[in-house]
Specification:
Shape of chain B: elongated
Number of strands of chain B: 5
Number of helices of chain A: 4
Distance between the termini of chain A: 24 Å
Oligomer: heterodimer
Structural class of chain B: alpha+beta
Radius of gyration of chain A: 19 Å
Number of helices of chain B: 3
Shape of chain A: elongated
Helix content of chain A: 10-25%
Largest sheet of chain A: 5 strands, antiparallel
Helix content of chain B: 10-25%
Largest interface: A-B, 34 and 37 residues
Structural class of chain A: alpha+beta
Number of strands of chain A: 5
Strand content of chain A: 35-45%
Strand order of the largest sheet of chain B: 1-3-4-5-2
Radius of gyration of chain B: 17 Å
Largest sheet of chain B: 5 strands, antiparallel
Chain lengths: 156, 144
């Protein structure tokens, strides 16, 4: 089966160009709300009094809390030809704990772009790399995500 | 907090404690609010169906969070999660239980750290692995 590529030269040119940075304040209440939403009752994510006695000396954020902090829009015009999107996966690397009161600066870029035929027709895979840096200039985490976009099937 | 696991106590091939989750549509709405991911396929059934999906589906990132908890529960207060990767191969829908599981694949010391590499995954109530993953953690030693 051959099919024209959905990847245009303009889309390819967007690879490697960083977004504007956006800085987020880490609020204790937001960490607790996130831990509650994922159903994680670990005291280091929920209870400042208990967390004071822990190794960390206070609350820290659960590993995927950074999903609540987005980067700015890409500096290039990038649009998938397909209207529906799915999340394909994430790869995280962690370097330092994230604490209430931290200021986290987030930047992202498109790292790779490829397409494959799947059960929903031609699927476009968009790999992004997102960096998270704290107020001391230290990288706290990196996330590599794969987004999948596709054309929703027509109504029968 | 649960009892601390130590590097000396684990072996390659050993299972990580299973984490059961019972996601509901309410949890998906809470996760949407807490994460800022308001994509409608996670809470609007009509929207999900128009996108070719059978039902509203769990956020991939919520499943990622479940697997993060598998690892932070296992590694304990004195363990440190260093890497966490997940792939969303199958969709999961609210209303049925989901199980986070794992097994230790490798155990070694590197740069003064006690490293364990783990295969982790989410399994649906029929035993199907919808979300395979991999994680690396550092564990404390007894007498540290």
């Amino acid at each position: 089966m051959t099919q024209e590529s959905a990847i245009t030269p303009e889309m390819k040119a967007a690879i490697g160009i960083e977004s504007d940075p956006v800085t987020h304040d880490v609020e204790k209440g937001a960490i607790i709300k996130f831990a509650e939403a994922i159903g994680d009752t670990n005291p280091i994510f929920n209870d400042e009094v208990a967390a004071r006695k822990s190794r960390y000396g206070g609350m820290v954020a659960p590993p995927t809390f950074l999903r609540s902090m987005s980067a700015g829009p890409l500096k290039v015009d990038f649009k998938s030809p397909y209207s529906a999107n799915l999340d394909g996966g994430s790869e995280w690397e962690y370097f330092e704990p994230i604490r209430p009161g931290d200021r986290i600066t987030v930047t992202t870029m498109i790292a790779d772009l490829y397409e494959r035929a799947g059960r929903l027709g031609n699927m476009l895979f968009l790999v992004r790399e997102t960096k998270y840096v704290n107020q001391f200039g230290n990288a706290v985490a990196k996330q590599r995500t794969t987004g999948i976009s596709y054309q929703p099937p027509e109504d029968e | 907090m649960a009892e601390q696991v130590y590097f000396e106590d684990v072996e390659e091939g050993m299972a990580i404690p299973t984490l059961r989750k019972d996601p509901t549509t309410q949890q998906l709405v809470k996760y949407a609010g807490a994460s800022g991911d308001y994509y409608q396929i996670h809470y609007d059934l009509g929207y999900a169906r128009n996108n070719g999906l059978p039902d509203v589906i769990l956020h991939g990132a919520l499943k990622n969070a479940f697997l993060g908890q598998v690892m932070t529960d296992f590694a304990g207060e004195w363990g440190t999660l260093k890497k966490l990767s997940v792939q969303y191969r199958g969709m999961d829908i609210p209303g049925t239980p989901i199980y986070g599981k794992g097994v230790i694949k490798k155990k070694y010391q590197q740069d003064d750290e006690n490293i364990v590499e783990c295969e982790i995954w989410l399994e649906d109530h029929e035993g199907k692995r919808t979300t395979p993953g991999y994680a690396v953690a550092a564990l404390p030693e007894r007498g540290d």
